[in-house]
Amino acid sequence: AKRLTGPLDVGALEESLNEIVRRHDALRTSFSVCEGRPVQVISQARQVALPETDLRDLPVEAREREASRLAGLEAGRLFDLAQGPLFRAKLLRLTEEEHVLIVTMHHIVSDGWSVAVFMRELAMLYDAFRLGKPSPLPELPIQYADYALWQQNWLRGEVLEQQLDYWKRQLAGIPAALELATDRPRAAVHSFRGASIGAILPLGLLQRLNALSHSEGATLFMTLLAAFQALLSRYTGQEDIPVGSPIAGRTQVETEGLIGFFVNTLVLRGDLSGDPTFRQLLARVRETSLEAYAHQDLPFEKLVEELQPERDLGRNPLFQVMFALQNTPASSPELTGLKVAPLSVESKTSHFDLEVYLLEKPSGLTCTFVYATDLFDSGTIVRMMGHYQRLLESVVADPDRCLSTVDLMSGSERHQILVEWNQTETEYPRNKTVHGLFEEQVERTPEAVVLRDGREELRFGELNRRANRLAHFLRKRGVGPEVVVGVCMERSARTVVALLGVLKAGGAYVPLDPSYPEERLAFMLRDSGARVLLTDEPSAPRFSGHEAEVVRLDSVDAALSAESETNPVGASRPGDLAYVIYTSGSTGPPKGVEALHRGCVNRFAWMWRTYPFAAGEVCCQKTALSFVDSVWEIFGPLLQGIPSVVLPEETVRDPRAFLETLAAARVTRIVLVPSLLRALLDSGIDLAGTLPSLRWWVTSGEALSLELYRRFRGSLPGATLINLYGSSEVSADVTCWDSRSAEPRDAVPIGRPIANTQVYILDGRGQPVPVGIPGEIYVGGHGLARGYRNRPELTAERFLPDPFRRVPGARLFRTGDRGRYRDDGQIEYLVRTDFQIKLRGRRIEPGEIESRLGEHAAVVQAVVCLREDLPDQPRLVA
């Protein structure tokens, strides 16, 4: 779209367009199907219409908007390849001496170079025709069809084999995809909807880039490409970075004056292995580029046909990012008596995930990023452009610096991520223990009902007396600070007595799930060094032959009745062990996590302050003791005087019975994993009508999909959903997202750090990553466990010194999970670093796993476990 200012001779302009179409067969070409194959059909020259739209009656601003709108509509109007024409023109009249010429050509008959040819010929023809002179242009020596025939005849036999052999070697083992983190899940089919954002990099930077290129014997393109591939490596974590780049393809002088599609696409692989310096990377890119130029004649389509990569309608084959330094001839020559200027037309399409176009100008380096709007937000692209500029500035300043050490973030970005989003310091009862807080609550509400389990009902005073008797009993058996006691019992009120008794004695409990295999229970009991094991009649037979003293709580009532009912004194301190919970063993042998009272109390205090209990609330206990969520589920309400209903396992497994029990007890808040939430939603029961009292739903332990959240919101519009993230190593939970905040658009975040907690997302070198870039989640603060029991090497590997806080002894826990920051500081959970699922060679994201499972009505649940202890076996066992 060109703005023409001055007295325009419309007749001469129309005659010029007709002469260009007559001269170039490509502009009169359409493509029909003959015997199943596409063929070029070149029509005879015919009059080209130049329809005119008069906008003079509109106000100035409206006129400009309408001109841009009409230009955009022309750009988006479809062609019919079989019928043609594949060239069209339109004229907009803005004033008597101001027009806009819109010319649209299908890419199959033109390229960027062709636009320059078109404009050059238009200027020469217009100047002649307006004076009544004949065309000054000589007849073309060849046409595009001649070139196509020559290419077909030349590119065969030995020539073709040489080209193919090179590219097959060059692209062997190319990654299935460049895993750029997107703002939205990738659709199954690419829609080609796009937008563009531009900027100008300073002239001084361009001059330094040219100087560096010259000193290294490289072109400016090679230098810019090397930096861009380094940026993509930082964004993806990949070391093999394939990027597509267009090349003019006009290797014969006869083709330079033709309009037609000559451009070819080269796949340039960037090798970032070994953490190179920029100088080293530039040498690699230079070598790769020169070899590619020497083998540029093989059409990209032919290469794809030969290599037959796994096709994915949502991605371009072999590469998904295009990069080009545009150096085609200038396309805006002057027309006599007219000033010619481009009219900005916003791009509405993107053929790839991302396209980057750079243009060297006297004012600096023009940089345009075209992006798929289905995948990226504009803010993400603006941020990426800023990171690209900072990377370029860093490498020209010090090309011998390892690329991994280049900081992409500005000082303000870094401060926001490290400081502003981690300002969580809040007061809490840091000098208290779990059982100490319980004893304070007993003083406040001794006669209030605290537990119901279907067999008995306990009040605070009675629960405290029973726990005290057990604590004195355990003390006589050597239980005290740092001594662990195993607890293996069916869930009941008696179980809570056992846990409180252990804590009051000063010890730490080790939960042992009665459903576990005997060999696993034996390992946990042995590894923990438990001196005493508290159990019940159903579970006791599984522990014969162990060194720990086995105490059946359902058979020692007489012995316990002789013990004191007073609170034990000086049992333990906030920095002592509260419990040792063993991990599931899905990533190796089970590991005992040593959690402290301090972490538990901080977690409780944050929840009580953020989501305070109201009078009349009721909670439920239904999580196995072996899962860390049970700690909050039991003690969160207990220490605030809120009664809980203890549910047996058989009730929890039956959605209908589970819901009926919750309804009968008028439960007001519940903690559950997303898979249980899905089972309840799938039950067909009206949850809102059945559970009118249940207003607080807390999910944790698994990723919460957007699809499941939306189902929850549709079924329970009046309830609040709280999505938590954490693990045993960090006292259960470290981030929180509340459904009452902004509605999630593309994924449910895990939220922001809770009180007295820091969460960082770091790269492989332990440095913070910018917003939007995936990295590993690290957690610091008061909730950290002491470490892994009897695993000092693993503790040292996973619990690291905190380099970002000047606090003595501050540590970070390396979670092994991947996440990324959003613009608002919310964190989005991605996937475990050691957990990837691939389908036909392509990595499947967690959200896609869920959507694919949803396609099959027969699939109820998928259980995935990883086996690090079987290194020679496939990583994924399902």
What descriptors fit this protein?
878 residues, alpha/beta, five-stranded mixed beta sheet, elongated, disordered C terminus
**What's the rounded overall pLDDT mean?**
90
Distance between the termini: 56 Å
Biggest sheet: strand arrangement: 4-5-6-1-11
Structure annotation, total helices = 25
- Regions with pLDDT < 50 over 5+ consecutive residues? 833-878
Q: Outline the biggest β-sheet.
A: 5 strands, mixed
* Coarse shape: elongated
Give the C-alpha Rg: 35 Å
Proportion of beta-strand residues: 15-25%
Structural class: alpha/beta
Number of strands: 38
Instruction: Give the fraction of residues assigned to helices.
Output: 25-40%
Write up what this structure looks like.
- There is one protein chain.
- With 878 residues, the protein is α/β, with parallel strands linked by helices.
- Helix 23 links the parallel strand 25 (696-699) and strand 26.
- The chain has a 5-stranded mixed beta sheet with strand order 4-5-6-1-11, covered by helices on one side. A 5-stranded mixed beta sheet has the order 24-25-26-27-28. Strands 29, 30, 32, 33 and 34 form a 5-stranded antiparallel beta sheet that branches.
- It is 33% helix and 22% strand.
- It starts with a strand and ends with a strand.
- Helix 6 packs across helix 7 and helix 17 crosses helix 18 (629-638).
- The protein is built from 25 helices and 38 strands.
- The chain is elongated and about 120 Å long.
